[in-house]
């Protein structure tokens, strides 16, 4: 779907990271591990109950399930936005179950996240939004100047650097969010219904970019309601129901 | 972390400029608060000045018996001037008192003709006493109300002056109480307004705070710009208020100079206390904005 020029620049981008600050001691086999993880929001509201899940380095996993079955809860636990009620959560070999508040920013700089509602800063331009993630991590100015155009080139928005989010289409906004999630060259990319607000053409573009990022070694967790996307990917599919995993198939299909 | 500090300053300037209407609103409210505090300052200076003026016009008159000897009068004069509360005592002998009396009734032929009928001067010498504080008159009057002076002193302006003095006390203490009450009221109102303005601003920015956390910003990066903004808003509002107040005081001084016969009363007060006034105002505004934004932001900074 006309996204090949975009993909070409990914190789360029990864060459940028020859010397990499690696915070996580990456476990080759278990990039993400959940051991009987339960999340209770309150006595009568359960997000996840007793979930066991292992995701290996380089996998592309789709998480599917009806509304309210705990998909977003799982993402929130992985970025430490919520704390598990019981169980153990490891990301790249790092036990983040009892992560301290001061370590949370470090964790989030290692994991890329994108959401259905893009979550861009409305008063910052495209370039500033992307640069922000580098600035708060204390990256040097020279490096920021180098990385920002490169990641925006990957998502094909290098010519809209100075636009504000409200001057972009939904698909373009999501691509900015993807560019931002890539600035630290994350080993893990979490995507919570990234195409939920997009039409089929924009959806395909986002999925193509995700596939290419995955090909270069980033582990991807994609939460989606989109049957076509899941069936086209032909990758691992985990189905949640009522906070539990009810099926986990390699080369799975969307079956709900 | 040095570059982090410059980034925070950059972010705060960006936020001030890109949220221009909110920035202008905040500064306006701060200026209104500072203006009301300055109004109270003017009220206080004017109250003090008028109390002093009224006090200056109050005195106690001691009317001596026309038969009192000079020695007796001198003894009382010495006794009175020994009081530390007494600022000044002025003596008029019988002739002076008579001349003054005739002068003040020059337009009243009835009084003058009845004086002529008497033929002699019926008035005794008078001592006019001025104390530093009106409330000390009671002390002087009590001290002179002893039996040994009963034959020397014919009258003391006791009754009327006493109630006048009491009333001035009631008025000045009430004005002072009212001024304090107003000061506290204005401070509370300003705090509520500013707290709410910032709370509303942060409420609308709570998604932004969430986004910043999401991309790995530490609390320092999220709060820092607000602190710098508070600092800049404080400087701007105190500066603009100073210019406004300076202008208005010069204007008011024109009218005040007519009443109190003092030039630049308010402007002089401002320039003499400039450092403490500006310092206190800046401190209050900075603290107020920091505390209110801190309170408003606290719940969004937790994970
Ligand atoms: N902050 C919260 N407080 C209380 N209950 C919550 C909270 N967040 C989620 N829940 C509950 O946890 C359960 C799982 O919610 P979650 O958001 O993970 O669902 P989801 O699978 O992402 O749904 P959707 O497909 O609609 O996004 C739901 O029953 C929800 O009501
Ligand atoms: Mg969800």
UniProtKB/TrEMBL annotation, chain B:
<dbReference type="GO" id="GO:0005886">
    <property type="term" value="C:plasma membrane"/>
</dbReference>
<dbReference type="InterPro" id="IPR004513">
    <property type="entry name" value="FtsX"/>
</dbReference>
<comment type="similarity">
    <text>Belongs to the ABC-4 integral membrane protein family. FtsX subfamily.</text>
</comment>
<keyword id="KW-0132">Cell division</keyword>
<dbReference type="GO" id="GO:0051301">
    <property type="term" value="P:cell division"/>
</dbReference>
<protein>
    <recommendedName>
        <fullName>Cell division protein FtsX</fullName>
    </recommendedName>
</protein>
<dbReference type="Pfam" id="PF18075">
    <property type="entry name" value="FtsX_ECD"/>
</dbReference>
<keyword id="KW-0812">Transmembrane</keyword>
<feature type="transmembrane region" description="Helical">
    <location>
        <begin position="224"/>
        <end position="245"/>
    </location>
</feature>
<dbReference type="InterPro" id="IPR003838">
    <property type="entry name" value="ABC3_permease_C"/>
</dbReference>
<feature type="domain" description="ABC3 transporter permease C-terminal">
    <location>
        <begin position="181"/>
        <end position="302"/>
    </location>
</feature>
<feature type="transmembrane region" description="Helical">
    <location>
        <begin position="178"/>
        <end position="203"/>
    </location>
</feature>
<feature type="transmembrane region" description="Helical">
    <location>
        <begin position="21"/>
        <end position="43"/>
    </location>
</feature>
<keyword id="KW-1003">Cell membrane</keyword>
<keyword id="KW-0131">Cell cycle</keyword>
<feature type="domain" description="FtsX extracellular">
    <location>
        <begin position="59"/>
        <end position="144"/>
    </location>
</feature>
<keyword id="KW-0472">Membrane</keyword>
<feature type="transmembrane region" description="Helical">
    <location>
        <begin position="274"/>
        <end position="297"/>
    </location>
</feature>
<keyword id="KW-1133">Transmembrane helix</keyword>
<dbReference type="Pfam" id="PF02687">
    <property type="entry name" value="FtsX"/>
</dbReference>
<dbReference type="InterPro" id="IPR040690">
    <property type="entry name" value="FtsX_ECD"/>
</dbReference>
